[in-house]
C-alpha cells in the first residue's frame, strides 16, 4: 500500500521486523562471524563484538531508522529533505548517496559469495564423502577460479534477489521474508541441536564464551566493530530505506533493540552450530574465509548429506534476505527520481550489479582477471575495503554526528518518542561515544 506521499509502507510491525532482521542476519552472521571469531581466538572477540553491537551499533541503528522514517523517501531523498528542514547544508544528502552507492557495491560482491553458497547446495547433493583438507580446498579453488560456474551462480543469486525487489515492498519483500525468516530460524535451530548432540557442544561453548583476552589484539577489536556494523546492515542505505516504509505508530527504539538482539542471537547460534563440528572433527577454527566452504565440508562428508544440503540452503536464505535490502535503496531512489516502473528499475540495477560483480568473481586469483590489482588488492578486496573500511565507518560516524549535532534535539525527541531517561542515554551515545569510537576505528583502519 502506498502512504500519503505515494511511498510504500510495511503492512505491519511484524513484517517490518522480519524484513529488518532478514537484512541484518546474513553472510555476516553465519559466514563472517564464525571465521572472524575463530581467527580472533573466540570468547574475548565475541564479548567485544556484543558490546559494540549494543553500545555503538544499536544507537546508530535507532538513528538510521528514525532518519528514514522522518524522510519517508530513499536515503538520498530523505537526507536532503531532512537537511533542508533543519536548515542545514544540502551536502548532507551525500550521506544518502554514499548509502545507495555503497549498498550497490556491496551487493555486487555479496551476490558473488551468495552464488558460491547457492552452488554449494548443488555440491552438497552430490555429497562431500571422502573430503579431507586437500580435497575440499581443491574443490573450492577449482570452483571459484572456474571462468563460468561462479558467474552463473552469481547471476542466479541476483536473479532471485531482483525478482523479489521488483515486486515491491508488500508484494515482494514482505512475502519473501514471512516465508524465509521462520524457515531460516527453524533450520538454524535444528542444525544447532543436531551438531550439539552429535558433535562437541562443550568445546564450542568453551571456545565462544570463555574469553581469553591475551588473544585479542587491537586489530581484532577494530574487526569486531566493523563486523558489528556490517552484521546490523548499518550505514549503507538498507536500514534507512527500511525505516522509510515505517508508519509513525511504531516504536523505533524497541524495534531496534529486538533487531540487535535477534542479530547477535543468530550469530551466536551459527557459532554454536558450526564450532561443535569444527572441534569434534579436529578442524582448525581459524580457517578464515574458507571456514564454511572448505573446513565444514570435511565434517559434512561424514554426516548424512541432508545436513550439508540444509546448511547451505539456510545460508542462501540468509544471504537473499540481506541482498534484497542492498538492492532496495538504489531501486527506491531511481524509482523516486524517474518514476520509471519498479520492475524495470530492478532489472537494470540488477544487471549493473551483475556486471560489476562479474569483475569480482573473475578477479579471484588464478582467474582471468586475477592479475588485475589495485593498490595490491584484487577487485573483490578493493570493493570490500572501500565499503567496509571507508564508506561504512564514515557513513555511521556522520549519521551519528547529524542526529546528535545538526538535527534539532526537539525533532529527534518527537520522532523517537522515547522516555526521557532513555533519550538521554541514546543522545549521549550518538553525540559522543559513536563518533569518537567510529572515528578512532576509521583512522586506524586507513593508516
Ligand atoms: N547485514 C548483512 C549480513 O550480515 C549484510 C548487509 C545487508 C549489509 N545490508 C547491509 C551490510 C548494509 C552493510 C550495510 O550479511
Describe the structure.
- The chain is mainly alpha-helical and 447 residues long.
- It has a single domain (13-72, 103-446), classed as Up-down Bundle (Amino acid/polyamine transporter I), CATH 1.20.1740.
- 78% of the residues lie in helices and 0% in strands.
- It has helices spanning 13-24, 27-39, 43-71, 75-85, 93-126, 133-144, 149-166, 168-198, 201-209, 218-231, 238-244, 252-280, 291-300, 305-338, 342-362, 379-406, 409-416, 420-446.
- Helix 2 (27-39) runs antiparallel to helix 10 (218-231), helix 3 packs across helix 18 (420-446) and helix 6 packs across helix 13.
- The longest helix is centred in the first third of the chain and has 34 residues, at 93-126.
- Bound molecules: tryptophan.
- Residues 23-24, 26-29, 103, 106, 230-231, 233-234, 236, 238, 322, 325-326 line the site of tryptophan (TRP).
- The site of tryptophan has 17 residues, from helix 1, helix 2, helix 5, helix 10 and helix 14.
Please specify the SSE layout and strand pairing.
Blueprint: H1 13-24, H2 27-39, H3 43-71, H4 75-85, H5 93-126, H6 133-144, H7 149-166, H8 168-198, H9 201-209, H10 218-231, H11 238-244, H12 252-280, H13 291-300, H14 305-338, H15 342-362, H16 379-406, H17 409-416, H18 420-446
Helix pairs in contact: 1-8, 1-12, 1-14, 2-10, 2-12, 3-4, 3-9, 3-10, 3-11, 3-12, 3-16, 3-18, 4-5, 5-7, 5-14, 5-15, 5-16, 6-13, 7-8, 7-14, 7-15, 8-12, 8-14, 9-12, 11-14, 14-15, 15-16, 16-18
The protein binds tryptophan (TRP).
Amino acid at each position: 500500500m502506498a502512504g500519503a506521499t505515494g511511498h510504500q509502507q510495511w503492512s505491519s510491525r511484524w513484517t517490518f521486523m522480519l524484513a529488518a532482521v532478514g537484512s541484518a542476519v546474513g553472510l555476516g552472521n553465519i559466514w563472517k562471524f564464525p571465521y572472524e571469531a575463530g581467527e580472533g581466538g573466540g570468547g574475548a572477540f565475541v564479548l567485544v563484538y556484543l558490546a559494540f553491537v549494543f553500545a555503538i551499533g544499536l544507537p546508530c541503528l535507532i538513528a538510521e531508522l528514525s532518519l528514514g522514517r522522518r524522510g519517508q523517501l530513499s536515503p538520498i531523498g530523505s537526507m536532503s529533505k531532512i537537511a533542508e528542514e533543519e536548515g542545514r547544508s544540502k551536502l548532507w544528502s551525500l550521506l544518502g548517496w554514499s548509502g545507495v552507492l555503497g549498498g550497490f557495491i556491496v551487493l555486487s560482491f555479496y551476490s558473488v559469495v551468495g552464488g558460491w553458497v547457492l552452488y554449494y547446495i548443488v555440491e552438497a547433493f552430490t555429497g562431500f564423502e571422502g573430503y579431507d583438507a586437500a580435497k575440499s580446498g581443491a574443490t573450492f579453488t577449482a570452483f571459484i577460479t572456474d571462468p563460468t560456474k561462479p558467474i552463473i551462480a552469481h547471476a542466479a543469486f541476483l536473479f532471485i534477489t531482483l525478482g523479489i525487489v521488483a515486486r515491491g515492498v508488500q508484494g515482494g519483500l514482505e512475502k519473501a521474508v514471512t516465508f524465509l525468516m521462520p524457515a531460516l530460524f527453524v533450520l538454524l535451530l535444528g542444525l544447532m541441536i543436531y551438531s550439539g548432540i552429535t558433535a562437541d557442544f562443550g568445546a564450542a561453548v568453551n571456545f565462544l564464551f570463555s574469553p581469553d583476552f591475551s588473544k585479542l589484539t587491537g586489530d581484532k577489536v577494530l574487526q569486531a566493530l566493523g563486523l558489528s556494523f556490517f552484521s546490523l546492515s548499518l550505514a549503507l542505505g538498507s536500514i534507512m530505506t527500511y525505516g522509510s516504509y515505517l508508519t509513525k505508530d511504531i516504536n523505533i527504539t524497541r524495534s531496534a533493540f529486538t533487531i540487535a538482539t535477534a542479530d547477535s542471537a543468530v550469530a551466536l547460534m551459527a557459532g554454536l552450530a558450526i564450532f561443535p563440528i569444527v572441534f569434534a572433527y579436529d578442524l582448525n577454527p581459524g580457517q578464515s574465509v574458507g571456514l564454511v566452504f572448505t573446513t565444514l565440508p570435511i565434517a559434512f562428508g561424514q554426516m548424512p548429506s541432508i545436513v550439508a544440503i540444509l546448511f547451505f540452503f539456510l545460508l542462501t536464505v540468509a544471504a537473499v534476505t540481506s541482498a534484497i535490502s542492498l538492492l532496495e535503496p538504489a531501486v527506491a531512489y531511481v524509482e523516486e527520481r524517474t518514476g520509471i516502473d519498479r520492475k524495470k528499475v530492478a532489472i537494470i540495477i540488477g544487471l549493473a550489479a551483475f556486471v560489476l560483480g562479474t569483475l569480482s568473481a573473475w578477479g579471484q586469483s588464478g582467474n582471468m582477471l586475477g592479475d588485475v590489482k589495485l593498490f595490491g588488492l584484487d577487485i573483490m578486496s578493493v570493493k570490500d575495503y572501500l565499503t567496509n573500511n571507508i564508506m561504512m565507518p564514515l557513513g555511521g560516524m556522520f549519521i551519528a554526528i547529524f542526529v546528535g549535532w545538526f538535527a534539532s534535539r526537539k525533532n529527534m525527541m518527537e520522532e523517537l518518542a522515547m522516555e526521557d531517561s532513555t533519550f538521554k542515554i541514546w543522545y549521549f551515545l550518538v553525540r559522543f561515544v559513536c563518533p569518537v569510537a567510529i572515528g578512532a576505528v576509521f583512522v586506524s583502519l586507513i593508516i
